[in-house]
Every structure is written in structure tokens, then in C-alpha cells.
Hints:
This protein is mainly β.
Amino acid sequence: HVQLVESGGGLVQPGESLRLSCVASGITFSRHDMSWVRQALGKEREGVAAIRRDDLTAYTDSVKGRFTISRDNAKNTLFLQLNSLTAEDTAIYYCSQGTSRGQGTQVTVS
Length: 110
């Protein structure tokens, strides 16, 4: 039974940065592809970034060059560095593995 616990969200001004973390348990973390998804109020859930177990990464176009996904397999932790934030990045950000997601962490840019 996989558990994913996100943290690091908050209220920031446009142009500022945040670093999100997700601690995973119940899985052999290093063997799994991981991703971050987000959902803004009234909008569809959107894939933001993904990292394969071989560390290959992919990003949705709107965050390329601003967000960086990474992982620390020794700590079972997934990260998302968010730079140059804009109001359009406001959403709940979820850590995801397969069909499992955490409870989310709110990012508000205002």
C-alpha cells in the first residue's frame, strides 16, 4: 500500500520560488516512475512533470525551463523545484505513482 505525503506549498508572489517534496512509503521507490500533477480550481487535473526510474525527465510545455523534477532514492523522496512562479501556477500539487496520489499541497501565487 503506497503512501505519498507532499509538503512545501505556500503563498508566494509572482516571480518567487518554492520547492515541493513528496515522501513515499510502501513501495521500492527507486524502481518506480514518479510524477507531479496539479489541479487548479475549476480546471482539469494536469500532468506537470515526470521522472523515470532511470532519471529521464519530462515536463508539460507551460513549465519547461521553470520547474525541475528530481528524486533522492536514498530518502524515498521526490522533489519539484518551482521557479519564476506566475498566477497561472496556482493549484494543488499532487505527487503521483501509478494511480496513487498524495493529499496534495497548495501553491498560491498572488
